[in-house]
């Protein structure tokens, strides 16, 4: 079972790296620039637009007919968006104003540091200390959580349209 887990992690991680490599070649960037522009900047912009679309649906529903429930829904969607604003401030303060190489290196160091908290047993096959955790943290943040939030925003819009 552990072998399949590591194969899947490696496969998805290298597929993402391959996508970024192709994107870099297509746009005339380096791999580092593609990683920074796509993962740190573009993904955040897409998340922010997705989250703001939830607020816009709630506001549109409120303007159609003002009810207490719709005020509560609008307030909850605004509160829901506060972590996205915080994330943007964090990304800007942490990586903004840097060269792509510096931002990439700092992000990689941050992911390696986060990976130290995973406590993966080093007796598992194909385990490489530091890098296995780096792959997992990278996938959790830039693939799993990203897609999960996009899905939740899509679901929230549907629920607001249907029940608000």
Write the layout of secondary structure elements.
Blueprint: H1 2-27, H2 31-64, H3 68-95, H4 100-115, H5 131-163
Helix pairs in contact: 1-2, 1-5, 2-3, 2-4, 2-5, 4-5
Q: Helix count, per DSSP?
A: 5
What is the mean pLDDT? Answer: 89
Order of helices and strands: HHHHH
The percentage of residues in β strands lies in under 5%
State the total count of DSSP E strands: 0
Shape: elongated
The residue ranges in which pLDDT falls below 50 over 5 or more consecutive positions are: none
Structural notes for this entry:
With 164 residues, this protein is mainly alpha-helical. Helices cover 84% and strands 0% of the residues. The chain has five helices and no strands. It has helices at residues 2-27, 31-64, 68-95, 100-115, 131-163. Helix 2 (31-64) packs parallel to helix 5 (131-163). The chain is elongated and about 60 Å long. The N and C termini lie far apart (45 Å).
What's the short story on this structure?
The chain has helices at about 1-25, 30-65, 70-95, 100-115, 130-164.
Task: Please supply descriptive tags for the structure shown above.
164 residues; mainly alpha; elongated
């Amino acid at each position: 079972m552990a072998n399949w887990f590591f194969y899947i992690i490696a496969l998805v991680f290298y597929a993402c790296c391959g996508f970024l490599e192709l994107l870099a070649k297509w746009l005339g960037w380096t791999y580092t620039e593609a990683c920074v522009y796509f993962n740190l900047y573009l993904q955040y912009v897409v998340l922010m637009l997705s989250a703001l679309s939830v607020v816009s649906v709630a506001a549109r529903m409120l303007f159609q007919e003002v009810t207490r429930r719709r005020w509560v829904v609008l307030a909850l969607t605004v509160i829901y968006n506060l972590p996205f604003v915080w994330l943007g401030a964090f990304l800007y303060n942490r990586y903004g104003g840097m060269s792509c190489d510096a931002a990439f290196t700092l992000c990689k160091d941050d992911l390696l540091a986060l990976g130290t908290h995973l406590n993966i047993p080093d007796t598992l096959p194909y385990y490489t200390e530091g890098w296995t955790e780096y792959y997992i943290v990278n996938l959790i943040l830039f693939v799993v959580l990203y897609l999960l939030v996009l899905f939740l925003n899509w679901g929230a819009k549907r629920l607001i349209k249907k029940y608000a």
